[in-house]
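anyone seen this seq b4? input:
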Amino acid sequence: MAVTKGTITALAEPGTVEAPVTLRADGCVVTPGFIDLHSHADFAIEDHPAADSALYQGVTTLLTGNCGFSPFPAPDRTVARRAAGFLDRAGVSWDWTDFDGYARAVQATGPAINIAGQAGHSALRAAAVGLEDRPATPAELDRMRSLLAEAAEQGAHGFSTGLIYAPGAYGDAAEVTALATVAAEHGLLYSTHMRNESGRLLEAVAEALETARRSGVRLEISHLKAMGPANHGLVRDALRMIKEARAGGVDVTADVYPYTASSTTLTSRLPGWAMDGGTPRLLERLADPADRKRIVAEVRERMGRDVDPAGVVIAALPPGPFSGDVAEVLAHPLVSVASDGWTLRPTGEDRPHPRSFGTFVRVLGGYVRKRGLLDLAEAVRKMTSLPASRMGMTDRGVLRPGAVADVAVFDPAAVAEEATFGEPYRLATGVRHVLVGGEAALRAGASTGARNGVVPRAR
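predicted toks r here
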């Protein structure tokens, strides 16, 4: 494969192309760079533009702005940061008001990989409505529609919802459909963290499909799973619903991370009214004995377990997706691989989910090589051309003359995850080279320090 000025220029027999620089790939597989459809790196890339956790897995492009959270629009920085909640980090400058400003700020950091963006529903709602638990007025909905259209015109790739997280959870199906219609008009992807991923999973899938049906938007169901032992097996019905919807003309796919444990916020377990007005009002309610008692009762009902202090230890091992469910979703041809992770340094001391460091290599090493659930070509498709097509990108996710030279080279016999729940900051192994825009960001298994990533704009 020949690369010139960041573009693939030829695919030819070995020895037939002369070049001043050659990377050997003996015993390796050469694929397009992996594309992660579900990342929260928009709140981490400024702090760690080297993106080691993703780069060492062969990931070259991240789609951010998921679960309704995005750093833009941010006409009021204070409100925007409150809406971002747990995703807001010390390294985020917030020196922008819209996607264009955010994109320029990210580009100025010199990212090692590509960072594409989506406009989050919670960010849109915070900008137009605030953090209150109430329906948007017609004028406020028009404001959200206008802000979403502006993000699309500036090059955002999608619109996302996180319908278990405040303030996005305060929007009803009609509000989401109105915004999805704007997304459809601008050719954006609609990525949704649905309203429920446990006992009411199928209702949530039905809502997402109806939103896509009414709006005509391209739909991506994020991290499809069924939480809790009583709900294991529901993903089969969810996949059937997705297949039937596609047969009926709905453009829908899904994605999954290959783990049986999830990771999210404690506040997402609280009833929506408790978060009305943001964290300051939540703290007031927690200090009120009557409100606290009501919160505990509703959390107990929602989680199906006691929530007294003794439950904290038990909650360290919550019932997550069933391994059989994960395998069934992963094997489905309409499902991409996506991490739901961050871009992290390999030097942390806390205990994040290992998916940031292991998602893609876990599939290649575990579900392809060890278990044989997928053949290698199908696994690569789920990490490259399938997610690229969902984003509407035609120049990435493929190896052909004229495509951007985002390339991963890995040893299929050695590629492996090293990150665990006990040691989540361990870099993946077995990926030999990674090119980003034709420049080697990883060579012979080690970072080169190159920062050739871009913020690709939707066209």
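The radius of gyration is 21 Å. Residues 138-153 form the longest helix (16 residues). kinda curious what u guys think
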